From TrEMBL:
<dbReference type="InterPro" id="IPR050834">
    <property type="entry name" value="Glycosyltransf_2"/>
</dbReference>
<dbReference type="Pfam" id="PF00535">
    <property type="entry name" value="Glycos_transf_2"/>
</dbReference>
<dbReference type="GO" id="GO:0016740">
    <property type="term" value="F:transferase activity"/>
</dbReference>
<dbReference type="InterPro" id="IPR001173">
    <property type="entry name" value="Glyco_trans_2-like"/>
</dbReference>
<protein>
    <submittedName>
        <fullName>Glycosyl transferase</fullName>
    </submittedName>
</protein>
<feature type="domain" description="Glycosyltransferase 2-like">
    <location>
        <begin position="2"/>
        <end position="137"/>
    </location>
</feature>
<dbReference type="InterPro" id="IPR029044">
    <property type="entry name" value="Nucleotide-diphossugar_trans"/>
</dbReference>
<keyword id="KW-0808">Transferase</keyword>
Length: 321
């Protein structure tokens, strides 16, 4: 198995991340660290030093920063394992977790396996379950996309919460859209659930996902956050020739509206010019949706979000909260 670890400005977390991988190492596992030209610390130097004790590991350094999607693709291109998994550079794994992943994907004989995870905020730890109740059986991935108004597996896009068979690459899946700075996993997870043949959900909780990291894009209000528009536009474009586009587009539009509303409500963290650009791009995205599509997408979304989206687009007085 190949473990792909993109790293950017996470020097202080490298010891814990690498130690967790040492505690998972096997002779048939490789560890590929992609250092995405850190600018604020010595992440690269820390990786070179600490990975000396991690067998079958290597560090690849980008010539220039490319973002998370591109860093993951670099790791994918360099990988040789039958199975691939991901770990963000500021997160860590429980001992033995990688062996459990391989056991699961081989036991279920599927294209990919998705798992639960543990969210870490300061000293608080919370288990987050993958939103699929059918566990430990092979499933058709398409059956986990709908319903529109409930949380489903395309709302759980975390690439690091699972393991993926290399044959997906041969079918033109698994790579990310180069250059996406945020929401890179949205078109990625939609593609997997639309086009892969089989998957399973395993009740494994060995990934520890760190929230509130200062260098994380979720904590930084800059123009890179606006890449979510491109991400969702890619989802919609790739749905265009799907045989079930009529049903699936409704789900994608609802997801899009949820994220637009979330960003608008939190726009206070952006500089004024970027907040203005956010509002403009939101109005344009909402304007590309028909009135009927918007009405259906916003039903039951909650008064604050519906009000926000009504105000940005205008002319949607009949939409129910």
């Amino acid at each position: 198995m190949s473990v792909i670890v993109p790293c950017y400005n996470i020097e202080s977390y490298v010891p814990e991340t690498v130690t967790s991988l040492v505690n998972n190492a096997r002779d048939d596992f490789e560890f590929i660290f992609v250092e995405d030209r850190s600018t604020k610390d010595k992440t690269y130097e820390a990786l070179l030093t600490l990975t000396k004790r991690l067998r079958n590991s290597r560090v690849i350094r980008h010539e220039q920063n490319g973002g998370l999607a591109t860093a993951r693709n670099t790791g994918i291109d360099a990988s040789e394992g039958r199975y691939l998994t991901f770990l963000d550079g500021d997160d860590w794994l429980a001992p033995g977790y990688l062996a459990d992943l391989v056991d699961a994907v081989e036991r279920f004989d599927v294209d990919f396996v998705r798992t639960d995870h543990v969210q870490v905020t300061g000293i608080e730890r919370t288990v987050h379950r993958a939103p699929e109740g059918r566990r430990h059986i092979a499933l058709d991935p398409r059956t986990s996309i709908l319903p529109v108004d409930d949380t489903t597996m395309v709302d759980y896009p975390y690439a690091w919460a699972g393991v993926y068979h290399r044959r997906l690459l041969d079918k033109g899946m698994l790579r990310f859209h180069d250059g996406l700075k945020t929401a890179e996993d949205r078109p990625w997870i939609w593609d997997l659930h639309r086009r892969a043949d089989s998957y399973a959900v395993a009740s494994l909780r060995g990934v520890f996902y760190r929230r509130g990291v200062a260098s994380s894009l979720t904590q930084i209000g800059d123009v890179r956050q606006l890449d979510f528009f491109r991400s969702f536009d890619l989802v919609l474009a790739e749905l265009a020739d799907d045989p079930e586009v009529g049903r699936l587009r409704k789900k994608a539009l609802r997801n899009y509206c949820v994220v637009i509303a979330h960003q608008l409500i939190g726009r206070g963290r952006f500089e004024r010019s970027i907040a203005a650009r956010l509002k403009q791009m939101a109005a344009e995205a909402l304007g590309r949706m028909s009135e009927d599509e918007l009405e259906e997408a916003l039903v039951g979304m909650g008064e604050e979000r519906v009000y926000m989206l009504r105000r940005i687009r205008g002319g949607m007085k009949g939409v129910a909260a």
